[in-house]
Design a protein that fits this description.
By secondary structure, the protein is α/β, with parallel strands linked by helices. Helices cover 51% and strands 12% of the residues. The strands form two sheets. Strands 5-4-6-3-7-8-9-10 form an eight-stranded mixed sheet, with helices on both faces. Helix 8 links the parallel strand 4 and strand 5. The radius of gyration is 22 Å and the shape is elongated.
C-alpha cells in the first residue's frame, strides 16, 4: 500500500548563496501574491462562514440548551449529552471524546459556563487543525506536476478549474490533462473550463488509457515550458481495487519524464459527504499518498466538521476550501477562520 511514498522535504544539503537568494525571492513573491488575493479570499471566507451555519447552530444552540442560565454542573449526564452533540457535527467520536474528557478533567464536580465550554471546544479544534503554512511544493525546475484525485461528484473537475485560476493569478502558465477518460462528461467539462480560462488541455479518446493522457500532458507541459501541470483522474470509488493499479501506472509514466512527478497529489473532498469523507480519505491516502486536501462544496448543506477527524487521523494538510461554481471560488485554508466559522456567533 505504500509504493507511492516519497519525500517532500527535498535535499538536506546546505543551500548555496544562490539558493538562499532564490528562496528569498520566492518568499517575497508568495507574500505579494497572498496580499493581492486577500479581498477575494476574504469574500469567499464570508461565504464559507455562512456555509458552516449548520454546524455552528448545532454547537451554539444545542449546547446552550443543556446549560442553565447560571451554568451547568459537570457530571456524567452533562458530559454524555455534550459528547452526543459534538458527534452530530461530523467531527467524529475521537475528537468529541477528547473535548469531553478535557472538560471533565478541568471542571468535574464544578459549574461550567456556556462560554467556557465553547472555549474548550474552540481551543481543541484549533490544536487539531493547526498546521504550518502549506504552499504548493513547486518543482525546483520545469513544470510542477499536480495529480488530482477524488470520487465522482466530489467537485473534482470544478476544483481543478479553480486551481488553474488560482495559479494563473500568480502569473503561472497551466497545462491541464483530462485523464478521466471513462467519463465523457468530465472531459467535456474540463475542456469548457480550459477554454474559459485560456489554458492548454490534453485529452484522449473515450475509455482510452488514462496513463497515456497523463504521459502526453506532462510532455506537453515540458514542451511549452509551463509552470504547472494539473492532471485529472478517474473518480472511482475508493473501494475499487483497480484504482491503485491505475494510479500506479500514472505515477510510473509521469516519473519517467520528471523523476519527482507528481510533486503533489490533491484529494478533493465534498464537505457534504459526512463521515463517508473519512473513508474516502483513507482509501485515497493509501492508494496515492495524498499531499493535500481541497475541501469543496462548503455551502449551507455541509456540516464541515468531517475535516477534523481526517486531519487528526491522516495528518493530510488542508490546503484549499471551495464554495460555488465560479473559478475564483477557492481560498487557501485558514484554520482560525474555519474554527471561527464553526463556533463564533454571527455579527449583525
Amino acid at each position: 500500500m505504500a509504493f507511492f511514498k516519497r519525500s517532500k522535504q527535498g535535499s538536506t544539503s546546505a543551500a548555496t548563496n544562490d539558493d538562499t537568494a532564490k528562496q528569498s525571492e520566492q518568499t517575497a513573491q508568495s507574500n505579494a501574491e497572498s496580499d493581492a488575493s486577500k479581498p477575494e479570499a476574504s469574500s469567499l471566507w464570508n461565504r464559507v462562514r455562512h456555509g458552516l451555519k449548520k454546524t455552528r447552530d448545532v454547537l451554539r444552540t444545542d449546547i446552550r440548551d443543556i446549560f442553565k442560565s447560571e451554568g451547568q454542573l459537570v457530571d456524567d449526564e452533562f458530559l454524555n449529552r455534550l459528547f452526543a452533540i459534538l458527534v452530530k457535527t461530523d467531527m467524529g467520536a475521537r475528537p468529541a471524546a477528547e473535548i469531553r474528557d478535557n472538560i471533565e478533567a478541568k471542571f468535574s464536580g464544578r459549574v461550567i459556563e456556556f462560554e467556557q465550554a465553547l472555549d474548550e471546544i474552540r481551543n481543541h479544534l484549533k490544536d487539531i487543525l493547526a498546521q504550518p503554512p502549506q504552499p504548493v511544493h513547486f518543482a525546483e525546475s520545469g513544470p510542477t506536476v499536480i495529480l488530482v484525485v477524488g470520487v465522482n461528484g466530489s467537485g473534482k473537475t470544478t476544483s481543478i478549474a479553480k486551481l488553474t485560476h488560482f495559479f494563473q493569478n500568480q502569473g503561472k502558465k497551466v497545462v491541464l490533462g483530462a485523464a478521466d477518460t471513462f467519463r465523457a462528461a468530465a472531459v467535456e467539462q474540463l475542456i469548457i473550463w480550459s477554454e474559459r480560462l485560456g489554458a492548454e488541455i490534453v485529452t484522449g479518446e473515450a475509455n482510452s488509457d488514462p496513463a497515456s493522457v497523463a504521459h502526453r500532458t506532462v510532455a506537453t507541459a515540458i514542451e511549452q515550458n509551463a509552470d504547472i501541470c494539473i492532471v485529472d483522474t478517474a473518480g472511482r470509488l475508493q473501494t475499487q481495487t483497480n484504482l491503485m493499479k491505475q494510479l500506479e501506472k500514472i505515477f510510473r509514466v509521469m516519473s519517467k519524464q520528471i523523476p519527482e512527478a507528481p510533486h503533489e497529489v490533491f484529494l478533493v473532498l465534498d464537505a457534504t459527504a459526512g463521515q463517508n469523507g473519512v473513508s474516502q480519505a483513507k482509501g485515497f491516502s493509501e492508494a496515492a499518498n495524498c499531499t493535500g486536501i481541497i475541501l469543496s462544496k462548503l455551502d449551507g448543506t455541509a456540516k464541515g466538521g468531517v475535516i477534523i477527524p481526517i486531519r487528526q487521523e491522516f495528518e493530510i494538510p488542508v490546503l484549499f476550501v471551495g464554495q460555488g461554481e465560479q473559478s475564483e471560488d477557492l481560498a487557501q485554508f485558514d484554520a482560525d477562520a474555519f474554527v471561527s466559522g464553526l463556533i463564533e456567533e454571527d455579527v449583525a
